[in-house]
C-alpha cells in the first residue's frame, strides 16, 4: 500500500486512502467464520474476543467518536492509518522489502522471528472480573465491563480507550 499519492506526492492521509489489509491478515491469522460480521453491524472491524452485538456497541461506546471505525466514517480511516503505522508490511514480510540485500536476508528473518516471539501480539477484547484495574490509567475495570488484554502481557488489562 503506497504511503504517498502518485500524482501530487502528498501523504495518504490527505486522500484518506484505506489500507486494503487489516492487521490480522498481515499477521497471517485466519479469520474465524463464527465471529461477528463487522459490516453487518455497521463497522469495518470487530475486536477479537467479542461475541455479541451488545459487547461490540459497549466496546465502541468507550472510544471517542472519531476513533470508532464505522463504515464510511473518519474512524475507518483513522484505524487504517494506525495499522499502517503500527504494522508496516515491511516489518512483516521480506517480500515487501525492496532494498534488503541477499546477504542480510537471514538477519532480517532472525530479527522478525525474535520480535514475533517476544513482542508481537494481537489483543483480545472481553469482559473481565471485577478485581482488575487498567494498566495505563490505574482505574478499576468493573464487572461485565469490556476491557482489552494481550496474551503476552500476562494479566494486564486496559480500558478500550486506553489501549492504543
Automatic annotation (TrEMBL):
Keyword presence, Repeat: yes
Molecular function GO labels: zinc ion binding
Origin superkingdom: Eukaryota
Classification via InterPro entries: PET_domain, Pk/Esn/Tes
Keywords: Repeat
Domain PET residues, every copy: 24-133
Pfam families: PET
PANTHER family noted in UniProt: LIM DOMAIN-CONTAINING PROTEIN, PROTEIN ESPINAS-LIKE PROTEIN
Protein name per its UniProtKB record: PET domain-containing protein
